Amino acid sequence: MKTWEFIVRRLLLLIPVIIGVTIITFTVSHVIPADPARAFAGGPKAQPDVIERITKELHLDQPLWIQYFYYLNDIVHLNLGKSYLESRPVVDSLAQYFPATLELTIFSMLIAIPLGIVGGIVSAIRRNKLSDHITRIIAIVGYSLPIFWLALMLQYAFAYQFPILPLEGRLAIGMNAPSSITGLYVVDSIITGNLDTLASTLYHLILPAFTLGFATLALILRMTRSSMLEVMGMDYIRTGRAKGLSERTVIYKHALRNALIPTVTVTGLSFGGLLGGAVLTETIFNWPGMGRFAARAVLGFDFSAVMGFTILVAIIYVVANLIVDILYAVIDPRVKLGGG
Amino acid sequence: MGSFKKKDMKAGVLAIIICAMFISIAFSGCTQQQDEEKPEIKNPTTMVRYDIGDAKTLDPADAYDTGSSEPIFQIYDTLVTYEGNNTKTFYPCLATDWSVSDDSLTWTFNLRHDVKFSNGNDFTAEDVKYSFDRVLTMGAPESGVDWILGQCMDTNSTTVIDDYTVQIQLTQSYGGFLALMPYTVAAIVDKDYVEANGGVVAGEENVWMKEHPMGTGPYVLDHWTRATEIVLNRNPTYWGGWEGNHPERVVIKYADEPATRILALKNGDADFTYVPYANLEDVIGEKGIVVHPFDSYDVALLAINTKATNNEFLADGQVRKALSYAFDYDTAIDTAWNGYASRLAGAIPNGMPYYETQNNGQPYYDYDLTIAEQILDDGGYAKDYDLDGTMYRFNGTTIRLFYNAGNSERETMAVMFRAALDEIGILSSIIAEGWPQLLHRMYTTDDWDMMFIGWGPDYNDPDDYISPFIGSADIGQDTYNTGYMNATVDENILEGKYSADSAVRAAAYKAAYDIYIQEPSMIFLVQRQYIRPWRDWVQNYSYNPVREWYYYDYYKAYP
Amino acid sequence: MDKIRPHVKIVDDFLKKHESKIKDLRFMAHLFRKSLLSMIGLILILTLVIVALFAPFLASQHPSYVRVSTEQGTTVTEERWDIDFSQKLLPPSAEHLFGTDDFGRDIFSMVIYGSQTSFRICIIVVAISTLIGIILGGIAGYFGGIIDEVLMRITDVFLAVPYLILAMAIAAALGRSIDHIMEAMIIVWWPTYARLMRGQVLAVREQQFVEAARSVGASNSRILFRHIFPNSFAPLLVEITLDLGAVLLVAAGLSFIGLGASPGTAEWGLMISSGRIHMFHAWWYVTFPGLAILLVVLGFNLLGDGLRDVTDPKLRR
User: Fold this and answer.
1) CA C193 – CA C128 distance, rounded (Å)
2) How many whole angstroms separate alpha carbon A57 and alpha carbon A89?
């Protein structure tokens, strides 16, 4: 099957999946007896005519299946409802917070991937030596840690006991964000040539990105290590060694390239875990991203916000997986595209 | 292979160091921080306050939460206001003096000259009329705050006499009218500015005004990054002038994690912060931090659903009386509020006029399980239901205690109350839910037994408390839908509401209380104190229960 | 083989029939014992099991269990601990090994009893998810065709959302309780097993002994249960062990946000959440439940890794 056929087929398959997710979110948000209309109208002091107007607006007086079609229609028109906590459309909130989470996720991967791969290689080369054992222990502890606990400990240690890193937030207090072009402060700072915000942003990224990426770092390290070991033991590697190629050539040219394949897959799959982990990390470091928004929405029982967030994350995750699958197919032409 | 050995050692040592760091981090809570002599004042011309939550809107006509009213108070002005911590005297702000007619129905305000909005437009009486009419026409679709003015005003009430004189004709006499004026709902907006940006549409919010305020106050908005911070810069054309010490900038920063806020206060990044009662020990006694409680009008109540359709036992006033004896008020004050609260005698909080009409200002009920059990036994509610060997009353019916999830003080009180109920043979369960769900229960399904709620002052008049709590639905009150109804109590409340004579009001409120307290629909829990720890370099800070923050007055220096 | 004692005919026959499998198992156990990390994992988990089983003997304080009626009219058992404000937030001592919390409860006892809660959550969620997943995945893989397609699309939908987030959404809607987060996690987790099982079944069903069984006329269900399921199970075991740890982390995360256990219950995630507000003047409140979670999850991960290593044919011989 040609590559573009594959891509188109997968994109089409995206649609029923997203619809399935909307069914879930719709069902979930309508199963609880709650009074969003009254909440929007101001709670205990709400006027009855305002409540009535909002009820009609939200179609809350219609049967459920009709509400679902309004819901789908809304989503297609990018209307994810109104966040009662923030008193504005959910899409506006998500649009504002999404770049913050994206930036955090990208940087956590920038930390996790190189360190993970290098660590995995080093570990594989020095298999069963002390450094291997210690690296493996750190890695396995790394993804056994509850991420919120790690965040609390790191924050306490490096922002308070030995205050070398900032406590919270994306920028220094009161500092104006760089002009919003992409929403990623690092990129925007570079484009607008604003060195102050660039420095402040990078400084603020360190702890949260490390926390978020630590589990992924551990995972990648293990993945790389085991696939390196697997590949290093294979015949064509032995042949290469027997032929007299230097250890370095053997490792870098052959073993590494083949070992990277499962690593790419794992990285792509971890992306979903990162989006989930971001919820906890952002809460502790007060990072103004989607995760923190979702956590507040969950606790505040702001269902439109929770559902909007879930749909968005689902779309992102599915698209990310698609990209990973394509990359996977490109890297390893042996993979049969579109097979089981 | 030999070349790897040395690197091995280094890697191993490094790994051990990392592990040791992790362990020391985990136990680093035990160590003390180093002390320093008087730390340098951070950001000397900027005031920084760390708080929880976020603002919802910067439009005073549709704002009803403290997160929104805080920045609004800095950007906008009202006709009259308070000074410092004085809540009894009204001071001139945009109005220089005022008078009221003999029948208490017509108020006349003389306005200040030479005041400009921060965009350069002049402030005149037209803006006053426009602001009030706007509130009433728009109808505060997001927050319902317009009820405050709607109690005694309509769009015909305000008339412009001349550029600097305005007259307000009340639709009915209202004793607390002047107290309404300092609240944000009565803030003055620029007519030309609003008209150029969406105008007024009945029943709809003005999206522009939500995020682009335009006022006459000391500060203007620099930026509002949602869920992060609001930054205000000084308004150079402010009519009050900038002589003396005033901050150039104000930053209100939002952080939901208490740990984060406390750390910010400790390292000087924050000048003020909100510390939950449970955490005050972390900051009391710390160098450079002042923890000083102020009396506030914030109260905590336990509402009871008195409707028999929900629970026949709670419908009996004697049962509710017994429950009032079953709450351990003093322990609640010590644990949930860490000692920073006081007993509440009735609906009217201490410090407001007519507080003493409530049992001479003394709480009517005290914690006494023996009396509670006596009342229940006398009422025929014996412990005759056997559940796994323990005897309970009410045929084993569970009383459900509700509170909104996340509120730790209410959670603590719920856990305490449940334990006490167990001791007197009443089964109970604690259910934490989200606010929309609780509202649904309270107003739509009526499916609740008891709910922990709170209340804060909208304006400084006891009617703001007594009517919603002990007035019934028949007179448009009973805000928490308890179903309580007593015609004589209602009569007295109405008399107190519409009279301007303090003797009449006092007698009415006393009469209402004496009847109500015998079979209450609310357990009056505590009146809490207001604490926002601050850095000792902050000067001239005082707390006003109605207008909580006014940064223009404060400044940073060591005395 | 002769060393196996009981000379009962049935047992002897059984042992002879499965001789090669038993040899395999013994070899795997041998390999397993050789790996230090795997053994550590095993020890950690055995410790958890012992602590959970013998909680009443190990703890100094004990909860009581009260039956209350819920919203839906059912009765649930609620865990209640005695509160004593005079003992509030004491540091670790001989009497209170892990200190006390803000209601005066002994944290050591709560961590011990919390192991029961954690254990319960992990086992139930994984067991039910596995069961649902195995059945649905097995059927889909075996019968193929449209059943397979439909199942794949359904699992796609659930796998499209990261675990924590979907569980969060469902639990928020259902209401705050441990049972609800378990239900939410089961809903979120079963697709993983369905997929895994399906893949295994696809691999196994083409093999010769299945062809043979079919040609003899064995019914579909017989083939499914006697031949396919038993042979597909091994990789699932690894996944299950690793998931036990993952489930605990997600459950703790949900409790931390405020969705899981109701206040006053001894649940590790909830304790960290309650404790973080006291982190500065009572570090023990956050540290010990966190260590407990870490050690248990670590145990499951090490164990799962060990199992994977010994069952992986490539790494064995």
Assistant:
1) 10
2) 14
Say if residues A217 and A115 touch (Cβ distance below 8 Å).
yes
* Residue B526 half-sphere exposure toward CB, CA atoms < 13 A: 23
Check if the beta carbon of residue C290 is closer than 8 Å to that of residue C297: no
How many Å separate Cα B106 from the centre of its chain?
A: 31
Whether the CB-CB separation of C175 and A298 falls below 8 Å is answered with no
Contacts of A45 in chain B (CB under 8 A): 64, 144, 147, 479
Strand partners, C206: none
3-state secondary structure of B89: strand
ipTM of the complex: 0.77
Q: pLDDT value at position A175?
A: 79
Decide if B522 contacts B304 (C-beta within 8 A): yes
pLDDT tens by residue, A256-299: 676 676 677 777 767 777 777 788 889 888 899 988 888 888 77
CB contact under 8 Å between B263 and A167, yes or no, is yes
- How many inter-chain contacts (A to B, CB under 8 Å) are there? 186
Residue B362, classified by CB atoms within 10 Å of its CB into exposed (0-12), middle (13-18) or buried (19+), is: exposed
d(CA A286, CA A306): 18
- Alpha-helix residue ranges (DSSP H) falling in B284-338: 317-325, 329-335
Q: How far is CA B93 from the centre of its chain?
A: 23
Count of beta carbons in the 10 Å neighbourhood of residue B225? 18
B416, closest residue in chain C (CA to CA): C83
Ranges of chain B whose pLDDT falls below 70: 1-36
Cβ within 8 Å of A, B 60-99: 64
Instruction: Using the structure block, give the residue that is written with the tokens 């009962």.
Output: C8
| Residue C3 in this model has a pLDDT that exceeds 60 | no
Contacts of C172 in chain B (CB under 8 A): 434
Q: Which residues contact C119 (CB under 8 A, 6 or more apart)?
A: C48, C49, C52
Structure tokens at C56: 């009443």
- Work out the end-to-end distance of chain B between its first and last CA atoms, rounded to an integer number of angstroms: 70
The alpha-carbon gap from B371 to the nearest alpha carbon of chain A, in Å, equals 34
Model confidence at A219: pLDDT above 90: no
Query: Which DSSP helix (H) or strand (E) runs through C129?
Result: helix C107-143
| Contact predicate C279/B30, CB 8 Å | no
User: In whole angstroms, what is the distance from residue B121 CA to residue A150 CA?
Assistant: 54
Judge contact between B177 and B90, C-beta under 8 A.
Answer: no
pTM, rounded to two decimals: 0.80
